[in-house]
Design goal:
- By secondary structure, the protein is mainly beta.
- It has one domain: Beta Barrel (Maltoporin, Chain A).
- The longest helix is centred in the first third of the chain and has 29 residues, at 3-31.
- It starts with a helix and ends with a strand.
- Mean pLDDT is 85; it is low at 1-37 and 397-401.
């Protein structure tokens, strides 16, 4: 047996032992007396349906993490959610997170295109995928809603929704400071102060400094300005004032500022597919987290946000809420695209946006609470400007010289939506669910590609869509609820960046979910299972541009997804807790013809050209250029994933000592629609471990953590660079570890 096989066997055996311990103990729980020392699983209250509900009462698949869970599991970013939510994948490309839920993501990086997974912070939609650092500061809860959420959350929620709920002012004055140190010269300092100013006014101020001074990607180029990449420096501050002039009215004012400075540099997997390009590229490393980089790649971001929220309890049965928000975002990003020791391909990108959103909703209970209604209006106004320059020594290999691509883009997006969601109790056990949303989207795009005939190319688009939902919910017993829902979703089309007015169509979805939510064994076991199936039309996916090495957007005609998820929480003993989650799915294209960029075209002027280039004059139907990928897996869609965690709490003389271990498995992940084996991330398994000490006084705690215990190399993203003709990847972090201490005043 080889080393890899032995490692896989050992991890599977370890997981089997852990799971068998938990499952073997479950029957015993059912025999335990109702009045015992063992406490049941904690109730989780979520606002996924824009009203406070127990998670077991919501007819949808939801993963929720409390403040305690976020701290104990060291969830510090979107990437940390991957190993906790099986249906969720988080990638990293060009300094931006790419979120996938149940196989659906755009995998787009320019910033113009709409994401398929909507992220909301305190009820405010986040238009920019890169602007989420502020959301991770002073968190109260994270909710992950799997599957389309078009009725309540709108056009950009075809894959799902992630809700960040931040903490608000406290009734008593309190403060806390938390410090953390770790490997790669990382350190962090976070704190808050909160309390009342008067009987009617409360405040909360929080701040965070989070640095990693030593990146985990080594630069092997002698004399280079930077010897490490994937450093990160973030500073942020947030303040909130809560006015409560009466028992029925509350007005919250919130402001925040964040500054991120990070470095990154993609690596390559193997030599260029083009011998001519290979000769120009110079020294390269094909090992994980190693590059030869002569040019610094950086992601410098500033973000500002302001939110005003009015909550008015008009009566015991009617609540009105208004959420007004403004977000300003600036990003500068120079990038070394080739990862080689010579200046072959670099880009300079400047990006700015101003976003205003307004939501009004009315929660109404009528007919003695048997009809629960939500009526809402949503307005979105977004203005985005960007400039991009690409410098390349590969433009003319016959006579090497620097060629330049430069473009300027402006997008104005306006959207208004009207929505309603209804839940009618036919009996005490049977409820009917219905809802609909009507979207009106307008996009005005102005594009210029310098040194070409594309000057001030203006494109005006309008999209409208109805996205209905219908379902049924039935309480089998007090502790068992079954549901079935059917809904449609929609994501607006647009114009692809890096092109001259090339439009892509709206993305649509129809499908359903059936599930059962249970609690048993004296509330010490919670088991939720959901099955789902979706048909996607015109799925928006990324396309490589061979001429400049950039990306565009195309529509995949048809895709189909079906799968099943399960979540388990169990209190085995007063000291031992088990949590596990699993997902199995099929997510494949059923009709998609696209250009395969790895096919080399006939030489032009003695220079080999990559496919998908503008110079390619062959018809689109030529199979040597375009391929039908029906039957291939969707980008970033894992066929299965599984996570299990065990926590043991031991009482010691001065407090409580908690030990927690986690193990996560993921099946093979494809990073392009051609399912290129060289680019795939094969099935992998990682472990995390934590130890926490909390004194009896609860004034402070100490925590040690290790993530990716076995130092597994696994990819965060991958793509084909059409200009260098190479498979390019970004690797996830290696083993990280550290110590954390918190003190509450």
């Amino acid at each position: 047996m080889n080393r890899a096989s032995m490692m896989r066997s050992s991890t599977l055996v370890g997981a089997g032992i852990a799971l068998s311990i938990g499952l073997h103990a479950l029957p015993a729980l059912a025999q335990a007396p109702a009045e015992g020392a063992t406490q049941g699983v904690s109730d989780i209250v979520v606002t996924a349906q824009k009203r406070a509900q127990n998670i077991q009462d919501v007819p949808a698949s939801i993963a929720a993490f409390s403040q305690e869970a976020l701290e104990n599991r060291q969830i510090r970013g979107l990437g940390d959610l991957t190993t906790r939510v099986p249906s969720l994948q988080v990638g990293y490309t060009y300094g931006s997170n790419t979120v996938t839920i149940r196989g659906i993501s755009t995998n787009l990086t320019s910033g113009f295109e709409d994401p398929s997974v909507a992220v909301h912070v305190n009820g405010v939609y986040q238009a920019r995928a890169r602007s989420l650092n502020l959301a991770l500061m002073d968190l109260e809860r994270i909710e992950v809603l799997s599957g389309p959420q078009g009725t309540l959350y709108g056009r950009n929620a075809t894959g799902g929704v992630i809700n960040y709920i931040l903490r608000g002012p406290t009734e008593k004055t309190e403060a806390q400071i938390t410090g953390r140190v770790g490997n790669f010269d990382s350190y962090a300092l976070q704190g808050y102060i909160s309390g009342p100013i008067s009987d009617t006014v409360g405040f909360r101020i929080s701040g965070m400094l989070d640095n990693r001074d030593k990146g985990f990607v080594r630069n092997l180029l002698p004399g280079a300005a930077k010897s490490r990449y994937f450093e990160n420096k973030f500073t942020g501050v947030r303040g909130i004032l809560a006015f409560k002039p009466s028992d029925t009215v509350q007005f919250d004012l919130e402001g925040s500022y964040g500054n991120t400075r990070s470095s990154f540099n993609p690596g390559v997997l193997e030599p260029s597919l083009s011998p001519a390009r290979r000769a120009v590229l110079g020294p390269q490393s094909f090992r994980p987290r190693e590059v030869y980089a002569d040019f610094p790649s950086e992601n410098n971001t500033k973000e500002y946000a302001a939110t005003a929220t009015l909550t008015w309890d008009i009566s015991d049965d009617i609540q009105f809420k208004s959420i007004s928000a403004y977000q300003k975002y600036k990003n500068e990003m120079p990038v070394d695209l080739d990862g080689s020791g010579v200046t072959v391909q670099t880009t300079y990108n400047n990006f700015a946006s101003d976003t205003y959103t307004q939501e009004l909703n009315l929660n109404v209970d009528s007919f003695d609470g048997r009809l629960k209604s939500i009526f809402g209006v949503y307005y979105f106004n977004d203005r985005v400007t960007s400039t991009a320059q690409v410098f390349s020594a590969l433009g003319n290999l016959a006579a090497p010289a620097i060629s330049t691509y430069a473009a300027a883009n402006r997008v104005k997006a306006h959207s208004i939506a009207f929505f309603t969601d209804q839940t009618l109790s036919i009996t005490d056990s049977l409820r009917l669910i219905g809802g609909v949303r009507y979207n009106i989207d307008k996009k005005d795009t102005l594009q210029t590609i310098f040194n070409t005939a594309c000057r001030d190319k203006e494109t005006n688009q309008k999209f409208t869509a109805w996205t209905p939902k219908a379902g049924i919910q039935f309480d089998v017993t007090d502790k068992i609820m079954a549901y079935a829902t059917y809904q449609k979703g929609f994501k607006a089309g647009g114009v692809a960046s890096g092109t001259c007015g090339n439009a892509y169509e709206p993305e649509t979805i129809k499908g359903g979910e059936v599930g059962i939510k249970t609690q048993f064994a004296d509330n010490r076991v919670r088991l939720n299972i959901a099955g789902y199936w979706y048909d996607y039309g015109n799925l928006q996916v990324q396309k490589t541009l061979g001429t400049i090495g950039g990306f565009s957007v195309v529509n995949a005609a048809q895709s189909r997804i079906k799968g099943i998820e399960a979540n388990l929480d169990a209190v085995i003993t007063p000291q031992l807790k088990l949590d596990a989650a699993a997902m199995v799915q099929s997510a494949k294209y059923t009709d998609f013809v696209n250009c395969n960029q790895t096919v080399q075209l006939p030489p032009i002027g003695g220079v080999a050209q990559a496919a998908c280039a503008a110079s390619d004059q062959r018809p689109a139907t030529d199979p040597a250029r375009n391929q039908q990928v029906a039957g291939n897996w969707l980008n970033r869609a894992a066929p299965y994933s599984f996570t299990i965690g065990l926590q043991y709490d031991a009482e010691v003389g001065a407090g409580k000592l908690s030990f927690r271990g986690e193990s996560y498995w993921s099946g093979r992940i494809h990073f392009n629609e051609f399912n290129t084996a060289a680019l795939d991330q094969r099935a992998y398994n990682i472990q995390n471990a934590y130890v926490t000490f909390t004194p009896t006084s609860d004034r402070y705690n100490l925590r040690a953590f290790v993530k990716n215990v076995r130092n597994v190399d696994y990819k965060a993203s991958g793509y084909f660079n059409g200009l260098t003709a190479q498979y390019t990847v970004v690797w996830n972090p290696p083993r990280t570890y550290g110590l954390e201490a918190s003190y509450k005043f």
